[in-house]
What we know:
- With 215 residues, this protein is of the alpha/beta class.
- It has one domain: P-loop containing nucleotide triphosphate hydrolases (Rossmann fold), CATH 3.40.50.300.
- The chain has eight helices and eight strands.
- Strands 2-3-1-4-8 form a five-stranded parallel beta sheet, sandwiched between helices. The chain has a three-stranded antiparallel beta sheet with strand order 6-5-7.
- β5 and β6 form a beta hairpin.
- The termini are close together.
- One adenosine-5'-diphosphate binds next to α1, β6 and α8.
Amino acid sequence: MSQPRILLLGPPGAGKGTQSGNIVEAYGVEHVTTGDALRANKDMDISDMDTEYDTPREYMEQGDLVPDAVVNAIVEEALTSADGFVLDGYPRNLDQAAELEGMTDLDVVISLSVSTEELVDRLTGRRVCDDCGENYHVEFDQPDEEGVCDECGGELIQRDDDNEEAVRNRLDVFEENTAPVVDHYRDHDGFVDVDGEGSLDEVWSAIDDAIESRT
Ligand code: ADP
Ligand code: ADP
Ligand code: ZN
């Protein structure tokens, strides 16, 4: 069988990036993530797309969505070269969901849910490796040596948008734009709701079971 095509949905801080790493390791699929792709291209010129701002940076720092045309192009290109994949951070509104339907079918759609207060604690305490992008948390997932990435020795930093103000805005943007996307996929044959509040290992085991049962 060809590799599974997996969509991972959930609010900012639900653990999508962290669990995508486990999925990649276990299933050998590609991690396609709009967040990382945009962070690597924060200052690209998007003015020819008739957008409010000239680069993704302004949208991202405030926690607003980057215009659809920009992210649709990123995902389209990434998916054409992927066999199996775990898609994380897209689609974030119903128009993006309609675009995705024109690009590929999906085998598994996982929705990770976590309460709002837990999300705020996870996001404001998140630290990421400046070199390889690995996720850590000051309390829940500490590296062996403070401030240093276990995987590559890189420096751990706090993302610009992981401050309380941008975090609250991102959670509002999720409720308004992305919660309808989760509801839209509830009818999909491969849909599964996973409780994202447990420990890292508990959540991984629930995700692994969900993928096994649907592929
Ligand atoms: P988180 O890990 O908190 O869910 P991401 O890394 O996925 O955040 O995204 C960071 C920011 O990048 C978002 O707040 C948004 O500005 C932009 N972004 C990422 N994916 C999309 C998308 N599919 N549509 C529009 N903007 C996006
Ligand atoms: P997302 O990609 O959905 O925004 P991340 O995977 O970056 O979320 O996780 C957000 C933060 O929460 C990170 O600091 C991560 O270490 C931490 N985290 C992820 N999963 C859990 C969990 N099950 N319990 C506690 N903290 C977690
Ligand atoms: Zn690293």
